[in-house]
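Researcher: Good morning. I'm working through a list of sequences from a screen, and I'd like to move beyond sequence-only analysis. For each chain I'm collecting a predicted structure so we can compare shapes side by side. This is the next one on the list. No need for commentary yet; just the structure.
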Amino acid sequence: MEHSNSISRKYGTVNMDIRLRRLSPSDLDRIMEIEQASFTTDAYTRSRFESLYRRHPDGFIVAELSSKIIGYIIAYISDGLGDFDSMAVDPRYRHLGVGKRLVHFMIDNFRRQGIREASLEVRTTNISAISFYHRLGFRITKVIKGFYRGGGDAYQMGRSI
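Model: Good morning. Structure tokens for this chain:
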């Protein structure tokens, strides 16, 4: 499973061959680097990533540029819905369409499997992520009080596929 695309930047064109593939266990060190650079709170531990990989190996996808992992997504089917569990892009490669490509890839996978709805949770204070998912067709469906450790609230967001 490999997919690539060219990405345009707002100020000029940057031709980048982004390759999407399944995670390999040897990729976890790089995934941890991206995770730590992306989340000051709520960062997943290595053991959580390992557990998610064991349970959902087909739903753990990495984005590569020149053989370097620059982002990842974890999404799988749960209770008949496409469940977006986690996603991050290396801060140096944000705003180039990498996250959008990862989300669309998983939506296409869900559609092929007959899934018609997708959902995710996002911290209510994460304005950039909320805006990103809105642009991809997700809408806030409810507030989940105390969803995060330490009591932070989450928006549940959903969209039709």
